[in-house]
Amino acid sequence: MDPSIVLMQFLNGIQYGALLFLLSAGLTLLFGIMNFVNLMHGSLYMMGAYIAAESYSWTGSFAWAAVMAFGGVFLLGIALDRLAIAKLYDRNHLNQVLATFGFMLFFNELVTIIWGPVSIYTVTPPALSGAVQIFGVAYPVYRLFIIGVALLVGLGLYLVIHRTRIGMLVRAGASVPGMVSGLGVNVKLLKMMLFGFGAALAGLAGFMAGPITSIQSGMGEPVLILALVVIVTGGIGSVRGAFYGALIIGLIDTFGRAFLPGILQMVFNDSIAQTTGPALAAVMVYLLMAVILVLRPNGLFPVKYG
Prior knowledge:
74% helix, globular, two-stranded antiparallel sheet, mainly alpha
């Protein structure tokens, strides 16, 4: 096996895992800390991609597109919280699932009405175009940029949650909201801001995904499923768990899709191998989650709150 191909797929797996982490980070905060099941998280990822693409086409500024995707989806999350989500925090998970599933269908129809059913694309900005040599392998700069952003986001989240007063209030507000409210903290405002921030992280992930994938209605559902696998594997509510879980899932999925068809060709014909390989790679991801749930029901890196 060519070492350069292995290195290329390893980097691709890390990049895919980094993108999954950006999406999973907000979801694990909502699910783990606030005990809120949000099936429209993938739709917020989709809205971030569309807002970024529209902003980039208007201004030609990649940085402005990032601000609009993050800030726009943050404001969208705040509006959703005020309109409907806040009323669901004390409801059971079935109510949360049904309500957010309805919002998911709404947003899919909304983007079809506004942008049409045809996929749209964004281009990589000139500053992030091209490739760099890594141990003799030319690797796209933009994919390294995604990895770098994910690392910064992960470090920032860890420091905020575990090293600041805001993080302390968020954790306490999730565990003992009555006590925190009695100390004069506006728990409703705290939850609203956390939901908005989680939504903004999904929007940021959509912005980052724009130049490497097509932007279309329903693009959030497949990645939402993988994001749920990530947070269950890593540990619900754990930022560290989401980070490592995303890297593990990204590597397994990427290596499986790249190398399983070749392995299967040793036994089956080319057509069967090319069809079955990617399917088996997807199955491996869910099989890993099942094994981890059997051995460690709280995930690889469980947290004490949530």
